[in-house]
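Lecture notes, unit on protein representations.

Consider one protein chain, 273 amino acids long.
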Amino acid sequence: MADTPEEMTQESLSIGDKIADIVIRDVDYARSYGREPEYTAEHVVDNIADRIDSSDRELEIARVRNYADRELGTLLVPFVDRFLKLVRREDFRQIENLPLLRVGANDLRLEVPIDAGNQRATVSIVARMRAILSDPELRRTSELDERGGAYQWRRIAELAPFVELRPHREAATNFFSLFTLSFWSARRSINSSGGPATVNFTVDCATYGYQLEYWPQFLFSPIVFGAKLTRPVSAVIPVNHYHFQGWIGGTVTPDGGLYVADPNNTATTLRAF
């Protein structure tokens, strides 16, 4: 049983490694025999929930009777589906690597897979690059576009110090380990508070006029946060741990913090702008 944060962390790493092995084996087998992989995002989330339950008796009981607990898994399925699509892309199979983002802080201190299928992710990374590169290097980014192909990401990794390429198995382990710990923590929060699977979360900052984007700590896949510019901005989002960034005048500023959104934490103030 995982009773302490340290035990949760170790068990999450173990679960993430096992799920990564299942997913990569499924993709390799399907590719070898010319068929579609069998393991869906719903299967992944159910499998992870079952493994968490085996280490957390209270959640095993709550999952049967708490609709919010089950709803949370459903809300997180699309993120898993996006990562599975990335793992299965033939262009990334050809270069035998996936792009990962070096982040300043997450619960496991791991590099985070970049959702290359999300146009906002590609635009964000290129914008970050252009903010730090010298003029000669900047000219090399002129061919980068928003399609996010594997060979483009290989060029990005050569230029950007915050992007690296890692084998599929390693990227999958990072994703599923971070996902497991995030999912586990969120389920505990929901069941201890009796709250819903979503929270109306308010984000403030020091500056007006930014468009905010957010992403869960296990996948760099930016999503517009709220329906207006700062400040403050509110939106209903699934209970989880999130990063934020802000856009103004075509420039993106990532915030270095990791923020908990749950029934006990319904607001925060960003640090970077």
